[in-house]
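Z., the sequence and structure:
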Amino acid sequence: MARVQKVPTAPFSPYYGCAIMLMAVLTFGGIIAWSAYSLLTQDKVIASLTVDDPVALPDKTLAAPARAALEGRLSEFTKAVSAGRSAELRLSLPELNALLVLAPDTGYGSYAEMLHFEKTDPAKNLLIARACLPMNRIKFWEGKKRYLIGGLGFHMHIHAEGVDAKVVEVEVPGKAVPEGFIVGMEIWTWLAPYRGIEPSGTVLKAIRSVKVTADGLTLSTVPE
């Protein structure tokens, strides 16, 4: 039986393989170069908006009776959620600031040292805070921080995991904040670290309505 032989229809050239490898190397190198450029560009933007030293934010301490009353309401709200009952919790701006102090340690640093709620924007469902936000430097391994000193607008919203907050507005006095910087800030959901801590995680997931009011915030387990 005769063998079937494959006859090349065009001359083979090893340079094709070399060309493909070269294209792959150039593409990979281009990705690395673009990533480095993007990182350096972002670093310059952050450097233009930050300062070397932090500032102290206002004291958040409640008087003993007010703190005891707040802790009692928080406890009752938690009990109602755990029992599967509908519940509502109203918090004033001073109480929201006190919550930053009372909140459990998540390992990401205390929000009490970063934020101080000052006003609200009910039309946009925003809590507006004065901020001293630590940010890494490009040489993060040196452990030195820089600080964004200004105002942050937190949009309060509900998703599958319950209530959350994300930054949608950033103001730095005397500086123009690029839109891309704000978009980057929106990625971080500020209540996410508490979802792995009980009973905080259960309570946050049970909240199905959040409404910013003229003087604070109203949370409810009943959807709007």
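Residues 15-49 form the longest helix (35 residues). DSSP finds five helices and eight strands in the chain.

Let me know what you think.
H.
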